[in-house]
Design a protein that fits this description.
This protein is mostly helical and 92 residues long. It has a domain of 64 residues. It has three helices and no strands. Helix 1 packs across helix 2 and helix 1 packs parallel to helix 3. The radius of gyration is 20 Å and the shape is elongated. It starts with a helix and ends with a helix.
Length: 92
Amino acid sequence: MLPIRTALIAAAAIAAQFGFVAAAQAQSTCKWYAATALKQQQENERLKCGFSGNAWHADLGRHLRWCKGVSPDEWKSAAQEREQKLRACARG
């Protein structure tokens, strides 16, 4: 019985570590997303593009919270879409 119990405890510890690593990675990527979104908003203002709405604001915490609530595909798509709009605005 003891080896099974030890194995279960070890498996639980390993699973907890993977969960922690995944959460840390998600937090790290959302920090990148939020910082990028903020820089894109600053570029929007600098270029006087006039973009507005939920994706265009200077609230870092709001960008971070949004990122944590969506899939990586969604936040990546949002960052790419803002970047494309900024490039088009810069070209005039």
